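Why this split exists: single-chain examples teach little about how molecules sit against one another. For that reason, every record in the complexes split bundles all components of an assembly together and asks for one structure covering all of them. Below is a record exactly as it appears in the raw files.
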Amino acid sequence: MIVSKGDRVIVQGITGDEGRFYTKRMLDYGTNIVGGVTPGKRGCRVHKLPVFNRVDELEADASVIFVPGPEAAQAIQEAMKAGIDTIVVVTEGIPLHDFAAIDTSKATIIGPNTPGLINVGENMLGLIPYEHFKPGKVGILSRSGTLMYEAADVLSKANLGVSSAIGIGGDPIIGSDFFDLIRSFEEDERTEAVVLIGEIGGTKEEHLAKYLSGFPKPIFSYIVGKHAPPERRMGHAGAIISQGQGTYASKIESLSKISTIVEDLYGLPALINEKLSGPRPDK
Amino acid sequence: MQLLEYEGMALFRKYRIPTPFGLLADSVEAVVQFYESNGPTIIKAQVPFGGRGHAGLVKIARNKREAQKFAKEILGSMYKGTVVRQVWVSIPLEAEKEYYLAITFEDRPVVIFGPGGVDVKPYLIKKYEINGELPEMPFPQEIVEQLWTLFQREDATLAEINPLVKTKDGYFALDSKIIIDDYALFRHAVEPSVHVAGKAEQEAIEAGLQYVALDGNIGVMANGAGLTMHTLDCLGDLKPANFLDIGGGASPEKVAKALRILDSNPQVERILISIFAGITKCDEVAKGIIDARCTKPLFIRLAGTNDEQGTKLLRRAGLDAYPGLQQALEAMRQTPTKQDAVEAME
């Protein structure tokens, strides 16, 4: 999976309220955090971890960013320059132009506006409420953070559990898409099925359906927004860009080609169990 | 945040995109004065919505009587919950050709252009990714170059001109639609609350909430757009009165403000609160719920960060919290409403 158990993790924005609070949560879960960065705070300690001014003062495999919106894009660029492979951007509120200017091919960027990722029983990067994630066999890829927790809760209560979960982020432009991340579940031995949680708006789900082929594990798609008020602000431009995609119907139509559509999230465990137990013998 | 037309026109002028001479007017007298100085006048209501033409909010006055009549009709009228307080008055132009031109984001910035006007046909519009060079336009290249500069410098997520017209005196942008990235407002001098309709929507924007009014009688509040939509989808035959996302990490004050918006809505009979806390803290939410002093029955689901503390606080205040959304929904369905009580008596 992206970010293995022993990978060294740093926290950017570690001395802020959120950085501090969630660093403790990540440490409690067993994440190998080696230090943090807040410009001007070198020499401080947060939960006994050393704090530095710059990312290049540390050696690490991954970074979790809690830096506020106005400065976060800069923090991402700094992490990329320092050679960090995986950057989890929890921050909500990065100006679109700032993020769009980042060359996202130089590292694996998760987010922005994501609760992060969790490899259940191994590590957690971000602010995921891990108490609701029992170890198990289902991978989750979600646009929504809080709905990811709900799905994990449902799977955990049904004793299917979660292998790993990644919040791909709620912003219109993100570093890694469903398509970019689903392959990591293919390779992961613990994962037997994958749940996609999408929503109306944008074309991320349609994009996955169009380009994914030969995925060896069953996929289940839950799409919300069936009853939500439609996005009307973009007007003509929206119609031109989306060309009919982005609606609930469009997502269901395209995802039904590569996955089982989940109508009721609370019926998901039954669907998965049925699929995983294989075809019924003919009577 | 969508700018009003006159604000967009001001930005066009700042970036040297030609616009016809025009002024902002907020009285019938000002409109008449414009007519007297300039002749035939186009009068356009300044509201944060499209569809003005169909609603009679764009008129051309060809004499003084019409200038007075149309100004009186448009100013002070109600449109989609907003009172029209200002109009843009301008000189109508004769268009030889009309174009549609816009710059927006897909995964990267794109420029879209083609024939424009009242009825834009999406299949006739071309789309190009902006990768350094801007494609050749059927109108002066400076216009798209300046629009691109505007798009970047003003943190726009959409900068649209429809129509861009060719006249005997040159090219002019006759309307503007500019949406500024909400995440970038901190570095621009705009007041968000001015640009929305309705008291509840205004309060919501000021409180940093995502709020959309709907038709039903169940007030719904949740944290995160996905969870909020999921909660709406779970209502089944029950009808939501609104969509309300309190976002992540809401403070007690923000939660209380959100609840008061729902509680004070006469349409709302019951309120469902659906919280699964990651960055949000359940005890903060609980404090906000208690402070709000709702008059209407509450059905609360609390799970996630600090859910035990939050539930304890609520119980002490005489409120119930459920660990599961389905449980909260079930409790809500079991609780008779006023309507049920009326029906039972009949």
